[in-house]
Fold each of these.
Amino acid sequence: MNDPHLNLEHFWMPFTANRQFKAKPRMLVSAKDMHYTSDDGRQVLDGCAGLWCVNAGHNRAEIISAIKQQLDTLDFAPTFQMGHPMAFRAAEKVASLAPAGMNHVFFANSGSESVDSALKIALAYHRARGDGTRTKFIGRERGYHGVGFGGTSVGGIPLNRKIFGGQMLPGVDHLPHTHNIREAAFSRGQPKWGSHLAEDLERLVSLHDASNIAAVIVEPVAGSTGVLPPPVGYLETLRAICDKHGILLIFDEVISGFGRMGTPFAAQYFNVSPDLICCAKGITNATIPMGAVIVKDHVFDAFMHGPENVIDLFHGYTYSGHPVAAAAAVATLDLYQSTGLFESSRALHGYLADAAHGMRELPNVIDIRNIGMIAAVELKARDGKPGARAYEAMVKLFERGVMVRITGDTIALSPPLIVQKAHIDEMFGHIGEVLRTLD
Ligand code: PXG
């Protein structure tokens, strides 16, 4: 690390082995487009769009200037019983990108908050319709829905359950996850095996009774638990079963939203329409924290029948629709549209997939998965040391000037959508060389 006066003691870093990091820090000091600059002056290629969020690449002038302008005009204004124009503009822009019939936007400040908001909207929706026994949620094993108690409960990450399982939401059950190396290893795009796993929802409905179930929540593509594209037909089956039983379907698109799939949302890519979409990250190109729940008209309308002077949704955050975040969102979504970024990025989905699947014969590679602008290389875990091999790969790649994400023993790539072929060659060139050196 370059600055000997920087005191590392006080920042308790999130989702980090603090002692390990602080013994050998990886410090980023600036960024532009596809690259970070590290504090020792190296250019580091961003293979994961920060944390799956900097979809248009770093420090885009149009977004930065909109933020500065907003700060000079209106730093903060409440959105409880007050309003400011930028929040309405941002909601209109988000709705314009959303699937047909999803015209209402509730703002939060992160993906976790958007998930908890969506779960509460689902509960309140059924109650507003006189269906107040519908309180249970169905999530999925290996789901990640952020870190709030609601999101942790519907999520399906064993370590979360080990540590926090004593205090999860009580009325939650889980679908099985769809990851199966024996049946579907090295699938390109959506695996052909596995759509029958969605039928497990019928089993859960029989067990709990539809009259008790509020919503099903899934990531259309599970991201942070290892990049798991949905099997062919899987999401369609979930939608059909939810429709049959009056259950809301929530897509958590915190990662898959805003162009990661080459469409505004994965809902459009898969042509499956949920009732609620959770989003965050790419909504502001990650410049300013913001999350949102996009709500289908029939859900919103259910809230509009009470007395006009009574609050329709008893929920919100001080910073819901914060002026600076809203300005960042408007500028970001304008930039995505004016540059045709989502559409142009599609041309490289196949190139990314080819490059990823080109790693197949390398040592310890047990699966490769891809969809949209996402790819993952799964490594065999070292005996008794899960995650160690991928961690070592991540560190070595960073030293070589490529930043990747790891989850368990999976290396995940989700570059900014401005990525070019040469960047993809560079990323996988280094990944290949590093995998050859790892024991
Ligand atoms: N839902 C999904 C699907 C996510 O991927 C969240 C909710 C929570 O968002 P916030 O903004 O509260 O963090 C996420 C976040 C990784 C990684 O390395 C993934 C996320 C966050 C940080 C790291 O895979 N996803």
Note: The chain has a mean pLDDT of 97.
Amino acid sequence: IDVTDYQKILNQIQQELSGTKVTGRVASYVPELAKVPADKFGMHLYNLEGESFCFGDSDECFSIQSISKVFSLALAMKMIGNTLWKRVGVEPSGAKFNSLSLLEDNFGIPRNPFINAGALVVADVLVSYFSDPKAAFLTFLHELTGNDTITYNETVAASEKSEGYRNFAMANYLKSFGNMKNDVEDVLDFYFHQCSITMSCRELPQAFIVFANQGQLLGSDRQFLTGQQVKRINALMLTCGFYDEAGEFSFEVGLPGKSGVGGGIVAVHPGHYAVAVWSPPLNPKGNSERGMASLERLTTLTGYSIF
Ligand code: GLN
């Protein structure tokens, strides 16, 4: 295979993996997510030359869930800079995305911004900073992608709120340590909305290409994030983007990336491309089973990862 022939490689991934059995289950703790058909499968790669390669259900929007934590982190870093690190750490957790157990030992400082506890602290920062954080978050995404159709799915946000006992517990727990400044209700309302954003495999790499392009928007000379911010976000995606499977993802795929319980995964090859894959069944660690396999095939068939 010609390493630059991404379309051929994507076709091969589709052929190899669309027929295989998956043992994982579609996320069901958010009732709305349980309704998504398990056999959806799509992938889209967008390179720095502005070329697109795709297959399957790559234009269908799905719930980005925890992938949104990369956007909220980027916005918080842009707004308050390095003071953010006083309230959230940068170490892998080795624990599940919704773990409460590490907070006690760390005096309420979450291990990193991608586990739920850390994302709730980042959400709190944004709720403090903006008078209308939900509007500001969408504006940020629209500027990043040049696509102002991206928006919240109110049904998914309400569905998650209706069963969000663990996130409520976590926010209250953070508050008991003084690491949650706003009303728990307000922070969770923002957090459930950010998770409810729907995007397709085509749209996600358009947002993530900035992380492959040293912070510059593609096709413009606008420096959207600094080189240092991009370095840090990519480092966090590599070490913490897959919770207690971050090591496995680095080992098998070798790219910074971020997963969500909607079954999406986005990964970035700095200097080359951003890629998204969507397949709803999740493995026991909460990451898309077929999505992980697809990205492993991508870096194996191209012969290139960041390593
Ligand atoms: N909205 C989900 C939650 O807070 C996000 C989790 C995820 O995608 N890993 O539980």
Note: The chain has a mean pLDDT of 95.
